[in-house]
Design brief:
The chain is α+β, with helices and mostly antiparallel strands. Helices cover about 25% and strands about 40% of the residues.
Amino acid sequence: MGYINNLRQIVGTAPLIMAGANVLLLDENNRLLLQLRKDNHCWGLAGGALEPGETLEEAAMRELYEETGLQAKKLKLFHVFSGQDFYYQYPHGDEVYNVIAIYICNEYEGTLKAEASEILDLQFFNLNELPPKISPPDQPVIRAFIHEFIR
C-alpha cells in the first residue's frame, strides 16, 4: 500500500476513497478461503488497495499472492461494491470509503502461506460454517456472495 501510505503522510487519518480488489477464493469443495487479520482480529478476504497504474484484476492477483502464496489462474468479476456500507475505520484510526471490485477464483496454484506481517492464519470454511467474527467491510460482500451462490 505504498500509494495509500504516501497519501496518509499528507492527510493523516482523514477519510479517503480507496479503490481496491478482493478475492473470493474457493477450493475444490467450494469452501471459502479467509484470513485472520492481525489489525482487527477478524476473518476476511484476501485483497487490498489499488496501486497507481494497476488494473483491479492485477491488484486482486497481486494481493492474493502476497497474502496467501496462491496464484490465481483465472478470475471472474463478481461485483463492485461501494457506498456507506463500505466505510471503515481501521483500529489505528485511518478512515476509508472503500470501492471494491470482488473477484471469484476457483482456479489457482501454489502453496498456502500466510503473509506474516498482516495475517495470523489462513483457513478454508464451508459457506454455512463461517467464523463469527468477519471483518466489517467484508461482511456485505460475503453475504451477497452466499445469497448468489446458494440460489
